[in-house]
Amino acid sequence: MRPTHPRIIFGLHRSRHERRLLTRALELGIQAIDTSSNYLGFQSHTTLANVAGDLLPRLTVSTKVGYFPGAQHSLAPDHLRTAAEQAASDLGREPDVVFLHNPEHSLIEAARDDLLEAACSTLADACAQGLCDRWGISSWDPRRLVVPAQRGLPRPDVLMARAGLLVSADILDAAERLAERLRPTELWGMSPFGGSTAAAVWDGFDSRIFLREPRTSTPIQAAFRAAYRLPSVGAVAVGTDNPDHLGELTDALNLEVDDNMIHQYRELLRTRSQPA
Ligand SMILES: NC(=O)c1ccc[n+]([C@@H]2O[C@H](COP(=O)([O-])OP(=O)(O)OC[C@H]3O[C@@H](n4cnc5c(N)ncnc54)[C@H](OP(=O)(O)O)[C@@H]3O)[C@@H](O)[C@H]2O)c1
């Protein structure tokens, strides 16, 4: 599947939650932000409402539930329901999308596959009751999110998985298998730079080899654009504290990816992941 209109979601995981960044995002045509109940020390929702409450109606807001103060993760329906209610209250508006945040975390510890079904149903019910518009699953490690075939899980609106050149073959494969199994309406990518463009890996090669016309971009822009094909996603959640960087990311959406190079890269990753 080749997305025709790639979109940017401004991710707030590592962001300072400054109004000027949200204003710049809107100026650039970025209409979506992604946060979580646990971002900014569990203060992300209230901070957003305080610094940019008037901007929030112009943005599509996705958030996540699953982590609770005290470094606890839970898929208990009453915890998730309370967190969804709290999100709407703290933001001052219902979020557009509420994700289960890394559900694999609790599933591994509890080893009970009925937990996922109950958690998904809780978010689907929350949407049906007007607490959110859509619901989804955001999984950092989809290898650990095995959904038994016999389970009748509600179909999520959105699945969000890691995207980009730094994602390993087994995680890419697992995300695609999960998408096939769950059949979400949309697949989003996240963390296209693995959390930092200052990491040494980005100095080691020129990502512009993944573009049809390499001369028109920077390596960071090329890496960002390539992330929409690894795996194939319609939107990518990316973080920055620099308004100029937001502009560079927006410009990168016009770049054309060389699908043949992406295919070769996937093959290379798969070969590398085979045991010697
Ligand atoms: N499990 C989950 O649900 C989960 C996990 C991780 C992430 N996410 C989502 O994905 C979003 C992004 O992921 P992430 O925060 O891990 O990191 P990321 O987007 O992979 O990388 C963020 C880093 O990229 C740099 N950057 C961005 N644009 C740049 C540019 N044009 N030039 C140079 N550097 C640039 C930023 O530095 P500057 O500040 O200097 O620009 C920042 O340090 C999160 O905010 C969140 O919404 C979800």
Automatic annotation (TrEMBL):
Organism: Streptomyces silvisoli
Domain of life according to the entry: Bacteria
Pfam families: Aldo_ket_red (PF00248)
Protein name: Aldo/keto reductase
Annotated ranges, domain NADP-dependent oxidoreductase: 18-145
